[in-house]
Amino acid sequence: MAAKALYLGPRLKKLRRDLSLTQANMASDLEISPSYIALMERNQRPVTADTLIKLATTYRIDVADLADEDADETAARLQGALKDPIFADIDIEPLDISDIATSYPGFAEALLRLHTAFGEEQLALTERRDGAQQGEATSDPIGEARAFLAARRNSFPDLDDSASAAARELGSLDAMRDHLADAHGLDLRLTDDGLLNGALRWHDYHRRRVYIAERLDPAGRRFQAALQIAILEQNEAISTIIADGRISTEDGERLVRRALQSYWAAALLMPYRAFTKAAAELRYDVEAIATRFAVSFEQAAHRLTTLHRAGEEGVPFFFLRVDRAGNVSKRLDGAGFPFARHGGACPLWNVHRTFDRPGEVDAQLIELSEGERYVSIARTVTGGGGRFGAPSVTRSVAIACSAAHLEKLAYADALAKTAPTPIGVACRLCHRPNCIARSAPPMGREIAPARFRESGVPFDFSTG
């Protein structure tokens, strides 16, 4: 069988530019014509074995240095992007995708950026449309921040890599304290609310100190220390990510920056590869994962929404946090679920019923009106408190994934013989009849007359 031709155009051009050579210079060094160099750089001619050996000996490089370490990841990212329904009628072979990633990395990156921008604009348009329907102002920093994160599926591999590298040295609070002292001349201390005035963390710039509330549990203390390091050291990397987005308000940019700083801090406590491996081993048992990494239930659940690194994906999860009144304080869509956009207000969803059993994990199989089924894992979490009289708040957090992943989850046995609970994304959008929990009639349906029959269902509507 003939050996496959080796095309190294973009990498050959990069090598030449790194060496500050013209095509004529390189051609002279390799004893070939400048036109042949040009053809190889455009992938119109393969790099022969003789030329490859001359490259290695002339410029004292390892042949392996010409390998594109990012090609596999780029190919995986391309494969994921090309699953978008907009490309559904285009048949592109995996081998073609791999060739594009290897031979035309610039084009591949351009396509990926364009696809990200397309997704971001779609989300922004949806936010504006929904806001207009509800009479909201068009300027919505929270909506902008959520759209930015959702367009990237709340996954930032560069931040994951940086945090994973730092985690080798900063695995404990003591190690982070030493790092802040050595790298930044800052003294990390635990203190009471008297000094912090209710805050969780305070960087006292003039005294060169960082105070963390002693009322926080060990997971909270470590997270705040990691967050301080992210603020001090990840500004440039985060600014680069933000610059790639389309954020029109200062508040929106601040919210995204805070989210990315928290992302890096969580990635330091739960490094990507170790976390993804542990999640699979523990079958996505959130409590067990939280115990292994010495983090809170909410921190572990939040981290599970970020497992979208190309080629190393975990189960895709959606995350929601609500209070007793149903107000959404955090929403992360890592799975593209329809109830991500509408807040998950259905009272039949277990994110609301967990308030009846504080601290207990509740697993539920849910089904939307269109027949789509999901697994929802919910539990209450408490914020604040820590001393007598201190205010606290109890919220409920839920993560959900497609029921297609049920067998990968520790909750599978408990749900295997359970009938799914029918829910709706919102009462105005749910056309499911006979729902006793309904708070509003669905759009476009007439209320049924009650002259001869009382159904007992609020806002009963005609199904004929």
From TrEMBL:
Transmembrane segments: none
Annotated GO MF terms: DNA binding; DNA-binding transcription factor activity
CDD domains: HTH_XRE
Coiled coil ranges: none
GO cellular component, one term: cytosol
Lineage: Bacteria, Pseudomonadati, Pseudomonadota, Alphaproteobacteria, Sphingomonadales
Protein species of origin: Aurantiacibacter aquimixticola
HTH cro/C1-type domain mapped to chain residues: 12-66
InterPro entries: Cro/C1-type_HTH, HTH_RamB, IrrE_HExxH, Lambda_DNA-bd_dom_sf, ScfR_C, TransReg_Diox_bact_type
Protein name stated in the entry: XRE family transcriptional regulator
Domain of life: Bacteria
Entry keyword Transcription: yes
UniProt cross-references to Pfam families, sorted A to Z: HTH_3, Peptidase_M78, ScfRs
Keywords from the named record: DNA-binding, Transcription, Transcription regulation
Protein family (similarity comment): Belongs to the short-chain fatty acyl-CoA assimilation regulator (ScfR) family.
